[in-house]
Amino acid sequence: MFIGRERELASLNRLYTSDKFEFAVIYGRRRVGKTALINQFIKDKKSIYFMGVESNAKQNLENFSKNIMEFGTGIQAETAFVSFQAALEYVFKLAEKERLILAIDEYPYVARSSKSLASTLQLLIDKYKDSSKLMLILCGSSMSYMEDHVLAYKAPLYGRRTAQIKILSFDFADTCRYIQNFSDEDKALIYGIVGGTPQYLLQMNDRLSVEDNIKNTFLNPTSSLFEEPENLLKQEVREPALYNAIITAIATGASRMAEISTKVGEDTSVCATYLKNLMSLGLIKKETPYGEKTSRKSIYTIDDNMFRFWYRFVPENTSIIGRGAADLAYKRVEPYLSEYMGKVFEEICKQYLWKLLLNGESSVEFRELGRWWGTDSSNRSQTEIDIMGEQDKDSALFGECKWTNEKVDAGVLEKLVRRSQLFHYHNVHFYLFAKNGFTKGCMDKADEMGNVTMVTYSNILKLLLAV
Question: Which among 128, 118, 106 has a CA at the least distance from the CA of 154?
Fold first, then answer.
């Protein structure tokens, strides 16, 4: 069953119906569903699909030749073209009279084995772009390779593409469509544990509890997810050990550059380079307090839920997991799950606010959303605001998110109001988000103020999952 990716499919179909040469670049991290997207797009169209392998040029050329011959004749042929140029030229000519798609998946494997491939493609695109109806798709999982050798200004193919699509993990709404048989609360927990990566979501069994799913995957040494983060790093970077140490440092509380550097025992200049690479992979993000472009208060956080969960709970329990003591390991994880879900719930609440804005229903037409932290000058203490969004210098929204079993009381609202007064907006709207609702005192206070929207988790699901 294929779920989501409506915008990506619509973009590809727009290119397809142009009936002229098109060249789309599709890239994104491993496991996010790039191949599934391509297969869904080409399933009812004339197409040649070729997946590169991590081998030499001869092997890839033979495989490519077989795919071309199978398309042309309907039978598997052993004949191979003499070169990639000959094979590609043949495909361009096939598309002179009718629309044809050529999708080269895992392009970096092919291009690394055949150093002249990019230049050959450049030559043939320039030669045939005005006469061919070919729709060329290059797809790759190596983010750095695709960005540096396909999309970058100095790359041979720069300026030839007509579209590029970066495939990201599913948001919470699409994730819920993938795991629709879980209870509402468990949907949030599953999203917090594995994020919106389709391949990881497939590892979750909706006939089991969240506890059993965690035990069967993260706390099971024979599970693919148990070794997934380290295996992915080995595929993407040259020195996985140091990258591993940096992510572990962040997962266990070191968020500032100096703290990370101290924890891993490397200079900040070294850590900065590695962090930059992790950000390009979509694993780490750099945050600054909302409204501050550059700040010494910048922090680093893990941007992928599966990585964040794994690095938070697996390394410190590796020894007992290796001995098959999943029950004991879970006992060490369970007390921290609610705290862990706090950041996940904040992200879900942001997605709710964006949906409100796009529906034209937001009280404040914000441009961005973010978190703010800094010093409360009234008592010189550190404080933070979960969500903040500015419309202009006069109007803003402030949000507080609580993933707790207790109902949110008036004190939470009063604290948010005080924190908002660190800023000087004339028009302010407050959003309170609660897993399990609000006390009567909180609701009365909100009614009295008149500029408060109270949102339960069930309200969030209703809006995000509305068809």
Answer: 118
For the stretch 236-263, pLDDT in tens is 888 899 999 999 999 989 999 999 999 9
Residue 73 confidence (pLDDT) above 70: no
> Which CA distances in Å does 190 have to 286, 302, 382?
24, 17, 32
Closest CA to 165 of 339, 397, 5: 5
Q: Print burial letters for 351-373: b (CB count within 10 Å at least 16), e (below 16).
A: bbbbbbbeeeebbbebeebbbbb
Structure confidence at residue 281 (pLDDT): 86
d(CA 433, CA 416): 12
pTM for this entry:
0.92
d(CA 74, CA 65): 13
Max alpha carbon distance in the chain (Å)? Answer: 80
List of long-range contacts for 273-279, beta carbons under 8 Å, 24+ apart: 274/242, 274/243, 274/246, 275/246, 275/300, 277/144, 277/237, 277/243, 278/243, 278/246, 278/247, 279/303
Q: End-to-end alpha-carbon separation of the chain, Å?
A: 18
Query: Crossing angle, helix 337-358 and helix 457-464, to 10 degrees?
Result: 50
Q: Read off the tokens for 313.
A: 């709970």
- In order of their start, the domains of the chain are 6-166 (3.40.50.300), 172-341 (1.10.10.10), 362-464 (3.40.1350.10)
Give the pLDDT confidence of 148-191 residue by residue, as tens digits: 889 999 999 999 999 999 999 999 999 999 999 999 999 999 99
